[in-house]
Amino acid sequence: MWLLYLFVFFGACWLGPGYLVSRWLWPQSTPLERLATSLLTGIIFVVPLAFFPGFLLRTPLTPFSILCAALSVAAGAAILIRFRPRKTPPCETPDGRERYLVLGVMLLAAYSALTTLPDHSTGVALFQPCPHQSAQFLLSDGRNGGLYAFDAEWGQVVHHVMEHDLEPGYGLFEVLGNQRPGSMATIAQPIAFLGSGGLVAASFGYDLLFLSFATLLITHHVRQWWLTLLLATLFHFGIRDVATYAVNENMLAGGLAMATLHLLLRRGHRAETVLAGIALSLCVGVRPLALAYVPAAFWLLRSPRRWGWFSLALTIGLIPWLVTQKQVFGQAFFHPALDRGQYAQQVLGFTITFHPLGFPFSDTLLRPDGEPFPNLLALPLTHLRAFGALLWVCILTGVVTRVRRLGPLILWSLPSYALLLAIIHLDREKLSYALLSMGPIAWLLGAGAAALYEKRLSLQQKLIALQLCLALIVGFPWLLKDVELPIDSRKQYTNRRYEDPRPVQDTQSDLTTPRFFPSYSERNPSRTFGLLSHGRPPQSDPNLPEAPVFIWRPPGQKFTHRLTLPITDAPVVPPGMGEADRLYENWRHTAVIVPIRNASRFVEASVSHDGKVFSVDAVTSPGTLSGYISVGLSDLHIGRWDTVRTTVDGNEVAPTVHKNKAWVLP
Fold first, then answer.
1. Percent of the chain with pLDDT over 90
2. Residues 575, 657: contact at Cβ < 8 Å?
3. What Rg do the C-alpha atoms of the chain give, in angstroms?
4. Which has more confidence, 355 or 518?
5. Are 344 and 351 within 8 A, CB to CB?
6. Which of 148, 189, 623, 635 could serve as a FRET partner for 101 with CA atoms 20 to 30 Å apart?
7. pTM of the model
8. Position 379 confidence tier, pLDDT thresholds 50, 70, 90
9. pLDDT digits (tens, 9 = 90+) for 450-465
10. 3-state secondary structure 585-612
11. d(C-alpha 21, C-alpha 257), whole Å
């Protein structure tokens, strides 16, 4: 069944409607552009159309509502094809053997998704990180029996229980404080069809979107399909290194940014301009920082008339995300990160509260404790290693051969990348924001590779390219090999799950040692496929009393759940409950084990939490079984409560409690 759900999701919800829209926009197109634009248009039209009405009406997102949105998009495109056909010239890229390129891109994206286990896919983490939490809110209105999703580490279906308020804004205030509405609405769709397997499907979709448009940017210059595929493969391996984990919403934002850049660079008129504006609107919904692309977009569009169409499409496309923020936060133009500053600092005469900033906002170069360099140096070194010397030779050659086109490309990448460089330290998850700057690199990679392959470099260009390559690839790391910088005593933004246990000197040596090729490491492919192969809509089985119960407490809320729990021979504790590296530092995870004697197979239990006391009250029926009932709890707030009270048939019993990232007996 999982294969059917996967096919219905991608075929009927995204690629199918997107294909019809693409066919209307470009009746003649190459196979690669058809694939890329079909996926793009499917996402940018179906995602907001499926999300926004349900959000306004406070109804759960379901496979049926997603299919209705997809059918509406497909029907509209089919009507336009029938009654308002467009006549457009073929796109610039020749067809040739591009079908091999399409097959290679799809296989590469599938390989990448199936060989990388999505982070946060276990029972105690499935709905914990930001986009997964919000997906849980959208898929359940908080008043039903919860969501059932397969978990590869438990090896069975887990019953996830949550209540949440419908106001304000579907109760998403705390969740969207760490996540943006565009990524929430997107990832909820594959999860709606495949449950926890939707994480693998989302990883495939994000990778395919990013990779297909990166490949299209390469084909602006390279005409050999095999060379294009080779460059795209190496580039994608570098991108996965920058992304650091799956499922990363920055891959989605980066793919949408790639698509916008391709449409702006493609010779076209109103249709391409409007589509670029709509694609950028979803990109802004995922990462508001993408608004910084607008000046570069105007530079590329050049025509005031096209500026108007682009601005109109962008404005209309932003409506769902602005309305969502208005209902959730009370302000449409609001970014929660700006309310969570750490230090007041002077920047260009203004006082701002933000992350600790480095040179030139501080007097000298400072490094965080435990790291050899600030972001200003560490980020370029990391990306030099991620892509490898071979690709950087091509990229820098592209800089030399296309120097007259660099203005808008620099303006495209500079704002997001410069912000990361200015902050002294961020953890690896936050540094993946650099994916938003990678579009011009793919374009320059194609330009440089074409120039080298076709031997179109003059002697002057060869000398300049050689100097750039030696300076950046060899000289820059060599200069920093033995540099020692003073430590910044301010508290940096970090996440203990990603602290490097190695000595600082080893990290410094690793960063300053050039790598010739990008590398790619597989991570738990068998478990990844296990997630996908058990994929099903998470609300499809409302009666699974034997599933382990894991309760998610919304921030600041009390709850009472009435559950049917099975008696088991041994306690059922979430895997990894006592392992600190699997748990968020500021989250409270708890497993409560209650002994049961002389009862029937199932126990009726009332589970409640009032912010101070966690209670499990069990009522048994006469029987011969003895064992345990188990309940897991994740407190989405930094709850500080110390009392667990359990009763069986009105009599208090002593439970076994596992909590606070360690095995603790009361």
1. 38
2. no
3. 26
4. 518
5. yes
6. 189
7. 0.91
8. very high
9. 999 888 888 888 898 8
10. CCCEEEEEEEEEEEECCEEEEEEEECCC
11. 19
Distance CA 368, CA 151 (A): 37
Decide: 361 and 347 in contact? Cβ < 8 Å.
yes
The answer to whether residues 150 and 659 touch, using CB atoms and an 8 Å cutoff, is no
Report in angstroms the alpha-carbon separations of 34 from 40, 443, 445.
10, 19, 22
Instruction: Tell me how far apart the 2 most distant CA atoms of the chain are, in Å.
Output: 92
- Per-residue exposure over 613-629, b if at least 16 CB sit within 10 Å of its own CB, e if not: ebbbbbebeeeebebbb
pLDDT for 376: 92
- Report how far residue 155's alpha carbon sits from residue 536's, in angstroms, rounded to the nearest whole number: 15
Amino acid type, 155 = G
CB 2 within 8 A of CB 14: no
3-class SS at 45? helix
What pLDDT does residue 542 have? 61
Q: Which residues of 208-220 are buried (b: 16+ CB within 10 A; e: fewer)?
A: bbbbbbbbbbbbb
Find tokens 């197979």 and name the residue: 601
Stretch among 249-253, 539-543, 647-651 having the lowest mean pLDDT:
539-543
For residue 66, pLDDT beyond 80: yes
Q: Are strands 350-354 and 613-619 parallel, antiparallel or unpaired?
A: unpaired
- Of residues 665 and 299, which shows the higher confidence score? 299
For 367, other C-beta atoms within 10 Å of its C-beta total 25
- Comparing 128 with 166, the larger pLDDT belongs to 166
Give the C-alpha separation, 253 to 286, whole Å.
6
Cα distance between residue 205 and residue 46, in whole Å? 14
Q: Are 507 and 481 in contact (CB under 8 A)?
A: no
Determine the Cα–Cα distance for residues 531 and 201; give it in Å rounded to an integer: 10
Segment 224-229 long-range contacts (CB within 8 Å, at least 24 positions apart): 224/453, 225/96, 225/97, 225/98, 225/100, 225/101, 226/100, 227/449, 227/453, 228/101, 228/446, 229/100, 229/101, 229/104, 229/105
In one letter, which amino acid is 13?
Answer: C
Backbone angles phi, psi at 188, to 5 degrees: -65, -25
Please choose, from the candidates 382, 459, 469, 473, the residue with its C-alpha nearest in 3D space to the C-alpha of residue 420.
Answer: 382
